[in-house]
Amino acid sequence: MVIKNLVIRADASTQIGTGHIMRCLALALAWQEKGGQAMFVLANKSPALEARLQLEGMKVVYLSVEAGSSEDAKQTADFVHQFAAQWLVVDGYHFGAEYQKAIKNFGVSLLFLDDYGHADHYYADLVLNQNISAHEDLYQRREVFTRLLLGTQYVLLRREFWQWRVWQREINPIARKLLVTLGGSDPDNVTLKVIHALPQVNVDDLEVIIVVGGSNPHYEVLQAEVAASKLSISLQQNVNNMPKLMAWADLAISAGGSTNWELAFMGLPSLLITVADNQKVIAQHLGGIGATTNLGWHEAINTEQIVETIVHLSQSYIIRTKMSEMGRQLVDGEGCKRVIAEIQRSTVKLRDMCESDRQILWEWANDIQVREVSFSSDPITWDDHVHWFSTKLIDPNSQLYIATDANDLSIGQVRFDMHNQEATISISIDRQFRHQGYGHKIIQLAVARICLDSGVKIVHAYIKLNNQSSVRAFEKAGFQHIRTVGIQGHQAIQLSLELGNTKRSGGTAKC
Question: Which of 106, 234, 469, 477 is deepest in the core (most CB within 10 A)?
């Protein structure tokens, strides 16, 4: 598989935080490890973040339009084409349904990172929700070709964490080393509230490391507080050694964002303070299963609660051990590999069939397995094929496509025979590409394409009873079992898919 270029569209600011960009950086680093290049398209200037991205070998460009607008989509798509990228990754709550639709209309393959189903509709090829709270019901309104990657098996961890996959944490009887990390920006300065609580923590030889991001607006205030403290506190900004700090610590105080998955992977017991609305569900789920202690919304908790929880966890060896074990079960560090594998499997394209495809189409048609599942099993002569092929290419009621992979290798064909506003679909896949999950993807792409290229309103497929693999592919693509019919002396299953502007549901696809 040839890995080429990847474009990432995400933003960071004091209000947004840095989480969207940092988890995209994790994917970009994994892409880079596979031999590809990545470009970040940003709307907001951030010298510290730009320096970090460039240090990691990423290209960085900036938009000159409003973030999340239709102009944003156009400029981003232009960057994708200029960079000759295969895929665009989009991450942010200001990118909604119309943005996704615009990107797809520019002919771009789209991976959309999401946390709670904030868009009205999903047009992306892949939707990734790496959270423990992810479930399919969040994405009922999606295109028939949209596939979901849900759950912590897809957690995106940056490269610095990868070497820690086999590391085993030792749980100390008393937690004396505390790591505090409350997000890249922490606009409400919840970190200061934690600092004020620390002098009341009755744990001997307590050591504290506080990590803040480059976009934290309160850094000088925090510096002054730490300098005036009698405790052993180190304040660090823009660190690039988070795994080492997490390995050093016995306990962490964290916000309810993406850092949770890093802590889980490192098996570091933690207590959570929610600092943003989008963190609430994650924190509640993790607290509910005992993977963390969830203190709740930062404004609703006081210094005494923070102190009491730190002391309780510091002295609770059994609780911290269970937290550590559960965290490692949730996140195994293979998420980036899994996502890239899904991108590779989803890199299927369609092009119109042309004269040069005549030979390979004849070879596919005469494949033994293809003849067995066809309604006429006799071999096809070259002369008959040449006549049929020439006729089909110019027939206005036929539409033929070739499916190709990311390397532009021909992997199969799709044909539509149309009558009025209905079409019958047939598909075959090259022997070397079978049983790799291409079938339903090609069907979905072809149905979406015929919907755009013609006035077809319903597509039918007729499949011999013994060809259950094809039945499953069509059902996975959204087709519904209609009836059993007789065709040329064979029993066949009719499956159909209506094309219309309705909510995604059984047998209906949005054009």
Answer: 477
pLDDT in tens, 255-277: 988 899 999 999 999 999 999 88
What would the two tokens of residue 377 be? 């099993």
Tokens representing 325 are 């074990």
**Which candidate, 335, 332, 26, 327, places its Cα nearest to that of 155?**
335
CA end-to-end span of the chain, whole Å? Answer: 31
Question: How far apart, in whole angstroms, are the C-alpha atoms of residue 510 and residue 498?
Answer: 9
Nearest alpha-carbon partner for 162 in 265, 307, 306: 265
Give the three-class secondary structure for 333: coil
For residue 343, the number of C-alpha atoms closer than 13 Å in the C-beta half-sphere is 29
**Which pLDDT band holds residue 506 (cuts at 50, 70, 90)?**
very low
With contact defined as beta carbons under 8 Å apart, do 459 and 497 qualify?
yes
Query: In whole angstroms, what is the distance from residue 27 CA to residue 363 CA?
Result: 39
Query: How do residues 90-138 score in pLDDT, each as one tens digit?
Result: 999 999 999 999 998 887 889 999 999 999 999 998 999 999 989 999 9
pTM of the predicted model, to two decimals?
0.74
What are the tokens at 214?
Answer: 């480059």
- Other CB atoms within a 10 A radius of the CB of residue 85 amount to 21
Q: At a CB cut-off of 8 Å and minimum separation 6, what does 19 contact? A: 183, 184, 257, 258, 259
Q: Any residues with CB less than 8 A from the CB of 271 and at least 6 apart, and which?
A: 251, 252, 253, 254, 292, 293, 294, 295, 309, 310, 313
Q: If we measure between CA atoms, which residue out of 249, 250, 291 comes closest to residue 272?
A: 291
Count the alpha carbons within 13 Å of 381 in the hemisphere toward its beta carbon: 3
Cβ-contact 150, 126 below 8 angstroms: no
